[in-house]
Write a structure and sequence with these properties.
The protein is an alpha+beta fold. The chain contains seven helices and four strands; from the N terminus they run αααααββαββα.
């Protein structure tokens, strides 16, 4: 399982391969909103309080991603922030008939805009192997990714441009002394 929402939020404010001054000037809220859209979550216009909660969620996701990448547990305050933001989600079980079968499903009600992505981050963390959370090996890129390669050796968050540019850099590097 690829932790899509966690990674979108954790990477929302990270340095990217071609950041320029214009993108650096975007607020954390605008970056978070764009990141969630990339994960398929479209938010309505938000109040100042809701924007603040979304920015807190981005910070918590980023700290959790960093901790898991290092093999550490995230700080208690970060976990409490995530739990507080997800507390606006309530679920109720429902039974429905599908053909001749009975299917149980959970129906969610997310009271705040930050509750849905916070709930999804918690669900994703519960289902991933934290040892496969990595940071792109290209020094100009600090994005996190989830290594889904069979041997667990993926080095770049994406083949294009980071993998391609790193191989190009190695190819153009002057040869070293003969060994």
């Amino acid at each position: 399982m690829n932790p899509t929402v966690l990674l979108c939020l954790a990477n929302a404010t990270r340095r990217r391969r071609h950041d320029d001054h214009q993108s650096e000037s975007l607020s954390d809220y605008a970056k978070a909103r764009r990141a969630l859209t990339g994960a398929g979550i479209v938010l309505p216009p938000l109040s100042a309080q809701q924007r603040s909660e979304l920015e807190q969620l981005v910070g918590a996701a980023s700290r959790i991603g960093d901790a898991l990448h290092r093999g550490d547990a995230p700080g208690r305050e970060t976990v409490e922030t995530l739990n507080r933001l997800a507390a606006g989600s309530t679920g109720r079980m429902r039974l429905r008939v599908e053909g001749r079968a009975l299917v149980a499903e959970t129906e969610w009600n997310d009271a705040t805009p930050a509750a849905l992505p916070a709930r999804l981050v918690i669900s994703e963390i519960d289902q991933i192997d934290p040892s496969r959370l990595r940071q792109c090996a290209r020094r100009e890129c600090s994005l996190l990714f989830y290594d889904q390669s069979r041997p667990g050796t993926q080095r770049w968050h994406a083949e294009s441009p980071c993998g391609w540019l790193e191989r190009q850099r190695r190819h153009r590097r002057p040869p070293g002394p003969a060994e």
